[in-house]
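Box 4.2: Ligand-aware structure prediction
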Amino acid sequence: MAFPNPLSFAKRLLYRPAAPISAEVRARIVHHESSGVAALSPDSEETVAGGALAGEEPEARRRRSRSKGHGDRPAREDGAAPAREFTPGMFGAIPVSGELHAALDDMEYLNPSPIQEGVIPLMKSGRDVVGQAQTGTGKTAAFGIPLVEKLDQTLNEVQAIVLCPTRELAMQVAAEISRLASYCNLRVVCVYGGQPIAKQLEKLSPPPQIIVGTPGRVLDHMGRGTLKLDKVRVVVLDEADEMLDIGFAPDMERILRMTPKSRQTTLFSATMPTFIKRMIDRYMRNPEWVQIQPEQATVPEIRQVYYEVAQRDKLRALQALLREWGEMPRALVFCKMQTTVDRLANDLQRGGHPVEGIHGGMTQGVRTKVMAGFRSGAVKALVSTNVAARGLDIPDVTHVVSFDAPQNAEEYIHRIGRTGRMGRSGLAIMFVSELEDFDVLDQIKVLVGADALARENSAIYVAK
Ligand code: AMP
């Protein structure tokens, strides 16, 4: 028998069977009610496309899965491959269709995570849901699974729309839903800015059942009449607080108003700023709340340290840390400005480190290539602005470096949440140099506890 892949093995350990809902999970899930009504009125702006992902190849998947042997029927006499049989099963305590069960099996999702235990049954029952959880908790599948189970595969109309703050997150979410839908006849199309619109237009006709996209591009397609949302049954606002931060609030509202009032609305957000609460009241109907207590701020797996380093010494300080570590770790390095990203990535590359920069000023093609390199491991570290790194699920990041301090404590939590995921250990480092950095440092200490964030001395300031 092959030795289990360490990652999937870790996942198995993390996701122990969930008897109805474990006491530990129940303690972390808070349900409460709020009320609200739906509204309406359209609008649009912005531009272009994305690429179709899964869905279209269920037959190919079915054929490939046949060779794995599970559920196969004996070969037919005419030589045609037998159709695979799917048997409904359980995902923890949640009953799932055979097709979904097979996909979950392929993905090695053996048991639901807490947010999945909370959200999936509610979404399946048709309730509006507010999920308060960070990325890394499994929230994509928490809404992806009910979508795959609920939508009508026989109808070529857009039945669900998932809005995400960034292109990268949209692509990641679309890819995950596509994998969940591997054995279904559902098409998932991702629409985001920065890709030729013609490419996307092809994918939108006939309409896919699921659209995942960034609000600007979705509105653009709606304005062109290439995307109609009048048959939408489910809307998912993923990382709603991030969409608000990026300035997508009016776009989110416009899109919501273009969908039928009868829709099911679900919203996921790590934080609940006032605007998001207002949106919940205005656009959601008596939503059920599933709150997974934020763990990142106190996760013991993440060691948090900061260095007081003069602005001009930051590069040297980082190089000193790299010498200490021996090699470039799987790191995300955050900078405030795109120009700093470019400069730092260059400096590190010149030092022989396999790093790349990523920011919103780059073409989509370059960003996609950089992300692919990072995921494959060819690129060990990514130097990034906040926006480019938002919500990305990069499971094995071990180091998060705030080369420039974050603007506020919440941003810090988002950053350090990129490591220590799924129970792995991580190191979060912050350079504090400007006066305002010290204010942010104080805020962070309030949030995470002064003891959790240790001050260390940079080697460059230690007398030789
Ligand atoms: P997300 O919060 O959706 O970005 O998911 C974080 C990570 O958890 C991703 O790598 C997922 O593939 C993984 N994941 C999500 N749900 C499960 C599950 N039930 N079992 C194992 N891994 C999961």
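In the box above, the bound molecule is adenosine monophosphate. The pocket of adenosine monophosphate is lined by residues 11, 15, 109, 112-113, 116, 135-141, 393, 395, 422 (CB under 6 Å).
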